[in-house]
Amino acid sequence: MPQEPKVVKVEELPASEAKWVAFQKISWQDQTGKDRLWEAAARKTRKATGVDAVAISTILRHPLRPPSTIIILQYRPPVDAVCVEFPAGLIDDKESPSEASVRELHEETGYKGKLAFISPTIVADPGLSTANMQLATVEVNLEEGAKEPEQALDDGEFIERVVVPLDELYDRLVKYDQEGKTVDARLWHWAAGWHAAKTML
Amino acid sequence: MPQEPKVVKVEELPASEAKWVAFQKISWQDQTGKDRLWEAAARKTRKATGVDAVAISTILRHPLRPPSTIIILQYRPPVDAVCVEFPAGLIDDKESPSEASVRELHEETGYKGKLAFISPTIVADPGLSTANMQLATVEVNLEEGAKEPEQALDDGEFIERVVVPLDELYDRLVKYDQEGKTVDARLWHWAAGWHAAKTML
Fold first, then answer.
1. What is the pLDDT of residue B1?
2. Which residues does residue B11 pair with via DSSP β-bridges, in sequence order?
3. GO BP, one example (chains A, B) (predicted)?
């Protein structure tokens, strides 16, 4: 990475200029029949599947190592920070969420896996946006001596991948935060759920 | 609930009319020094703490019942669905995220708890918005025969609370989805992490 990415300027975005995001004024009727308004953001990229994105909780198995997952680190302009996340991406045209999961995992991490499970459609931040996603579980079975594969990133994509034993994930996220990186809420919740199950009396 | 809430109309929201949400055109420089643009949404309600919101993973203990958590069901206009979420809310002025956690849990569920832990600041959907939050763990210790407390909702708030044993949470979320409700991604991830820790071989 030749230099640190950074935000140079933040301006108000007129709706007429927006290419990726739409701004919605939602008129709705509440439980008492009262007319109310809500403001929300929406992605303009949603395809026929009706789902914006997928994220991938990888289960990486190796004969000699503890079961691990893969997390990625990438700079995110909206929060001006390097974020720690599950591999994830938007769903392409004519692609199912399941196909997108296997493709995105390969592109962002180099690993080719097999879809074991995909969640129903879940919503990222339903007080603020229409954004939705599905969480896939993709299994990767490595052989002894397997080499770390090459990522298949697009030009202009800078993504670091890190393999982490599942039992160390929560502590690793705490450490990334202490080092000044920012953890994605969904990844944090997954690790916190795992940690609670393993430690709660 | 006298009637089902519903979306009546969705219009484009001009930036000049937006009261709760701001739209950002972010100029940033990438790792190669190239000037690039990103579009994002931001909440206008962020206070001096720099954190928009808190969510609460409650640990409810009772001498005769399995350890449980509390989830809430509420209609969310951006996704036009009843969402299943951890209790959560925006942080008030002159309030710390920790104080907000205990207050929101009480308002939305009626339970008064003690903060056991609060996460660092994590980001809700960093490709789309600046929204951030902290996840609190709040413990509630009940005595045998304790009655279910009253919620302390604001006028116009319609929130249903449900106590769920932690070991049943994941299956319960699957069932809510099948019934046509929509699960929040963060709650799903927490339950999926717990489920993986309990079931993975």
1. 53
2. A25
3. nucleoside phosphate metabolic process
Q: Name the residue among B131, B122, B129, B133 with its Cα closest to residue B40.
A: B129
Query: Which residues of chain B make contact with A7, given a CB cutoff of 8 A?
Result: 26-28
Rounded distance between C-alpha atoms, residue B49 and residue B91, angstroms: 8
ipTM at complex level: 0.97
A44 touches chain B (CB under 8 A): no
Tokens found for residue B109: 């569920």
**Residue B48 in contact with partner chain A when CB distance is under 8 A:** no
- What average pLDDT score do residues A172-189 get? 98
d(CA B96, CA B47): 10
Q: Does domain A45-199 have CATH number 3.10.100.10?
A: no
Mean local confidence (pLDDT), B25-44: 97
Which whole number is the average pLDDT over B30-42? 96
A50: tokens are 């009706």
Q: Give the homologous superfamily in CATH for domain B47-199.
A: Nucleoside Triphosphate Pyrophosphohydrolase (3.90.79.10)
- A 10 A CB-CB count for A80 gives 16
CB-CB under 8 Å, A57 with B30: no
Question: What is the amino acid identity at position B13?
Answer: L
Q: State how far residue A201 is from chain B, nearest Cα, in angstroms.
A: 9
Pairs of CB atoms within 8 A across A/B:
316
**Quick check: B189 and A186 CB within 8 A?**
yes
DSSP A123-143: ES-TTTB--EEEEEEEEEEPP
Write the burial class of residue A62 (CB in 10 Å: 0-12 exposed, 13-18 middle, 19+ buried).
Answer: middle
Burial class (CB in 10 A: 0-12, 13-18, 19+), A120: middle
Sequence ranges of chain A with CATH classification 3.90.79.10: 45-199
- What's the pLDDT band for B156 if we cut at 50, 70, 90? confident
- pLDDT tens per residue across span A62-110: 999 999 999 999 999 999 999 999 999 999 999 999 999 999 999 999 9
What SS3 state is found at A189?
helix
Q: Is the pLDDT of residue A134 over 80?
A: yes
Nearest to A9 among B8, B27, B122 (CB): B27
How far B102 CA lies from chain A's nearest CA (Å)?
Answer: 19
